[in-house]
Structure formats: C-alpha cells, structure tokens
Design a protein that fits this description.
Elements (H helix, E strand, L loop, with lengths): L7 H9 L6 H4 L4 H5 L6 H13 L5 H7 L7 H10 L3 H5 L3 H5 L6 H12 L1 H12 L22 E5 L7 H10 L3 E3 L8 E4 L5 H9 L3 E2 L1 H8 L3
Parallel strand pairs: 1-2, 1-3, 3-4
Length: about 220
C-alpha cells in the first residue's frame, strides 16, 4: 500500500501479535496497539499511524497496485484507473470491456476479472472504502473525472492547423485520453490533419472513426 515506516519487519511484528490479518486491519490500528510492540515508542507509533492515515488519500492506481492483483504492476494500474477512475466500476468490468483498453491483453483482463470475481476481494474493496480509503478519483473541487476521452486511445496523423503534436498530446491527456503512435483495433479515434500518412488508410481499413481538427474539438467540447 506504499506506506512510509511500514517495512517487512513491522508487518511481521503486527502479524505475529495477531493485530492484522489483512490490509484492512492496518486502518484499525490504535496508538496503544503499536506501543505494545517491541521497539515501538510513542514517536514511532505516531509516525506510523500518520503514514497510514495519509495513505487513505493516495491515487487510486496506488491502491489497485497495492492489492497485489496478478500481473498488474504500477503502469498497468495507472492504465486501468485511467479508464476506470471508480474502482467499484472496475470490479464489475467484464473481460471484454478490459480488452478494449489500449495495452490490456487477454491475460491481464482475465487476471483482473478473476481477482474481482472472488467475494473476499469484493468485500475487501467495500471495507476499504468504509474505512475512508479513496476508491474513486475526483477532480478539483470534487468535479467528476468522467472526462470525454476517459479510457480512449487517439492517434494523430498529418499536421493540424492549430495544434502541434505536443500540444495535441497535452489536450488529449487533459481530457482523459491517451495518444498512441500506431493504429489498431483498440484505437478509438484517428485525428487526421494535412498530409496524413499510412495511419489514415489503416484507420479506414479497420473502421476506426476519423476526425479532422474541428471534429475532434467538437468531440471534447473545447473552446
């Protein structure tokens, strides 16, 4: 769970003392529990409790990564939570839903759906939410992170009238999407400018929607 001051030796102590059996138990620890452990003084106990408290507000990808889902490393956790900022929705995603995401193949999709098909793991997510952990990303001032390109993969080909490649990439990412350098069946949109290359032909071959700059701006409703 990426908690400062919580190393393997401390975890071993907590387990041996019967204070924790799972992740959720960390968030029920009290000062007196820690003070009863060997080599734990008031300062170290306070520091650990503070670190545990701070971990409640970590990004959802860190929580997902910390759950130890097989084959879901940090980068894949970021990919999944980009498409599913609400982890309770990720729990209900089907294998087919996940395989539509860029970078998610059959093996990872099966691993995620298998993990969340276990009632114990589903109950753990509910328990962690009840304990105050962030299981749903929100934007500034509580705005919903359900952005127009959330979980979408966009490919640019050619030169746009008003946006350079870096500016275009920043615009896509700002709206929740990801820019890819190649067209595949997992591509959601191809944005074509002047002098498009072979990517346009590939998009047409695969039936991927093709937009010009104005169509793209209308899609994301950017002034």
């Amino acid at each position: 769970m990426d908690i400062d001051s919580l190393g393997e030796s401390v975890i071993d102590q907590l387990v041996s003392a019967g204070m924790i059996k799972g992740v959720a138990d960390l968030y029920r620890l009290r000062m007196e529990d820690l003070m009863s452990l060997e080599r734990f003084g008031e300062k170290s106990a306070r520091n650990l409790l503070a670190a545990i408290g701070q971990s409640k507000d970590q990004p959802t990808w860190r929580l997902l990564h910390g759950l130890g889902v097989f084959r879901v490393g940090a980068s894949m956790a970021k990919e999944l939570t980009s498409a599913y900022p609400d982890l309770t929705r990720l729990m209900d995603a089907s294998k087919e839903d996940l395989m539509r995401l860029s970078g998610v193949g059959e093996v990872i999709a099966e691993s995620v759906t298998l993990y969340f098909s276990d009632p114990v793991h589903r109950e753990l997510m509910v328990e962690l939410a009840d304990l105050g952990l962030t299981v749903r990303s929100i934007g500034p001032a509580g705005a919903d992170m359900d952005l127009p390109l959330r979980g979408k993969t966009v490919v640019l080909t050619g030169t746009l009238p008003n946006y350079g490649r870096d500016e275009f990439t920043a615009l896509v990412e700002k709206n929740g999407g990801k820019v890819s350098g190649s067209v595949s069946r997992k591509t959601d949109y191809v944005v074509a400018g002047e002098s498009p290359g072979s990517k346009l032909a590939k998009a047409q071959e695969l039936g991927v929607p093709v937009l010009d700059e104005s169509g793209f701006l209308e899609l994301i409703k950017t002034d």
